[in-house]
Amino acid sequence: MSFSPSITTAQLTEDFPSEEARLEFWADAARELEWAVPFTKIHSATPVDPTNERGPDIRWYEDGKLNAAVNCADRHVAAGKGDKVALYFEGEPGDRRAVTYKDLAEEVAQAANALEELGIKHGDRVVIYLPVLVETVVITLACARIGAIHSLVFGGFSAEALRFRVEDTGAKLLVTTDGQFRRGKTVAVKSNADEAVSGENNIEHVLVIKRTGDEIPWTEGRDVWWDDVVVRQSTTHEAPAFDAENPLFIMYTSGTTGQPKGLVHTTGGYLTQASWSHRFLFGASEEDVHWCTADLAWVTAHTYEIYGPLSNGVTQVIYEGVPNAPHPGRHFEVIERYGVTTYYTAPTLVRSLMGWFPDGIPSEYDLSTIRLCGTVGEAVNPEAWTWLRKNVGRDTPAGVPMVDTWWQSETGSTVLSPRPTDTKFKPGCGSRALPGLAVDIVDDDAATVPANVQGHIVVTKTGPAMARTVWGNPRRYYTSYWEKYAEQGWFLAGDGARFDDDGDIWILGRLDDVINISGHRLSTIEIESALVSHPAVVEAGVCPTFDAKTGHAATAFVVPHDKSLIGTASPEVVASLLAHVSHEIGPIAKPRDIVFVPDVPKTRSGKIMRRLLTQLFEGSPLGDTTSLQNEPCIPEINEICRERVGA
């Protein structure tokens, strides 16, 4: 279709003839779950309240009752699928385990009994500080089974990051491990956990899994071993049913300023949209083996590695380690070993694979089972999109279907994505909203922007998985997401986007990742995409830095293929990159500075933390770095920047 600014939101998404039809769609999706008490009320909401600075009070299926853990394990056993593999676990050292749905149901029951023995009750908070292990999935579902609210924390986060989450949730229990395996070495975890709970908090017990066998500090009376308290429990547990709006988990997401926000997701609505969207995007056949490569503490893993696939009875892979240990082909070994059919990963990993395999994936790896790939985290560079589709999906002549998903911790499930049944894909394009949702791209006055003009992407019709509030801070829920378009009742995602001439949507990165150069608003991700398409570049992060003449300048941090360039200012390569950006976008987009670095700082979800790049280049105080997956790169980049300034 040709683009017109008058196109309605419904026409740009799935066109339901009425709001009643949209709600019935979500009612049908919810009925795919097992309800102890069926719902009769589909949806209601109290509008945004600017006077009292309150976001909407959103309710889905509010008079129904269910249990999330039963839906993810017990019901599949009852349906005669207890012998089906739920989880193929592969540890970084090479240890492996196949966990059936019967195994999973029994282990969750044991963990639920153990939680109750430790005094955990409905509504209590449990913080889970673990790597990707079977036990991580088990304890997460055990919390859901008894109605405790879980909050998973990445096992590589610092003690301070963990301390904040322990104290903010008021958790009574911390679940951790003696250590974890990373790049062939053991990394201490329990010492961080001890430091995190050393202050004023509500922690009564620390439940410890023995993973590495390393010697660890121990506090008698507080610390308990998993094998001592969980393994001896009964493999049966009577699961209560909870209100659909009962809180299920708290997911912390970092902002550009202030402390992380604890987003509260509830049971019935979240599980409905997680389950339905997993089926819609990835399928759920008996033959499928799904692999979402995210760490279990990230919202992507909650939705498409725990609750979505398990509620649909799918077999999936969980992998403990990093993708290049002991060699860069580890992921391809895993795909071949388990016959992975759907592979869902982050653009930053794809770019790393491109750097490790510049000539393509060696033919020795059998990737023939792959039928679909997907990306998540931030908008994927077209070059990385194309590489993933044609290299991992190489056994399909044109490459496999791609679900290039856009969503957030706040939305709980995918908002934008091409359909896996599409016949024509646009590399790096989020395409359009999924059924049952509606979005628009608007200006500051809430008017739909014309084609090829950047605006604010807003969700005008949210789904059941939408976060209900910020834990302990409802005002922040309002000011962060609802205040700007309170009159319209729209959720402000915080990302910039544009329509193309066909009405398809392109995500342009965070609204604070826009560089204004002499009045020209340029998206950092567009400049990054241009740089990454140059053969000398593995990855790039672009940030705004001060310029007395133009207001802002674009500064590019480039990870080169040639590691000898790191820390240098090679005139030949810089000139080639500048010429390339000028050709791809235009002279106005050329970075003023190009800095060759070993890595760019990224969150666990793969988002480049561009504000940190600005602060590092300008030498200003750094903000919070606790949500980084690669924090050691910060001092390296800082040293390169200081040497550059000195020169």
UniProtKB/TrEMBL annotation:
The keyword Ribonucleoprotein does not apply. InterPro entries: Ac_CoA_lig (IPR011904), ACAS_N (IPR032387), AMP-bd_C (IPR025110), AMP-bd_C_sf (IPR045851), AMP-binding_CS (IPR020845), AMP-dep_synth/lig_dom (IPR000873), ANL_N_sf (IPR042099). Belongs to the ATP-dependent AMP-binding enzyme family. Residues 526-607 form the AMP-binding enzyme C-terminal domain. The lineage of its organism: Bacteria, Bacillati, Actinomycetota, Actinomycetes, Micrococcales. Residues 76-469 form the AMP-dependent synthetase/ligase domain. Keywords: Acetylation, ATP-binding, Ligase, Nucleotide-binding. It is an enzyme of class 6 (ligase). It comes from Neomicrococcus lactis. This is Acetate--CoA ligase. NCBIfam families: Ac_CoA_lig_AcsA (TIGR02188), PRK00174.1 (NF001208). Its EC number is 6.2.1.1. Transmembrane segments: none annotated. One of its GO terms (biological process) is acetyl-CoA biosynthetic process from acetate.
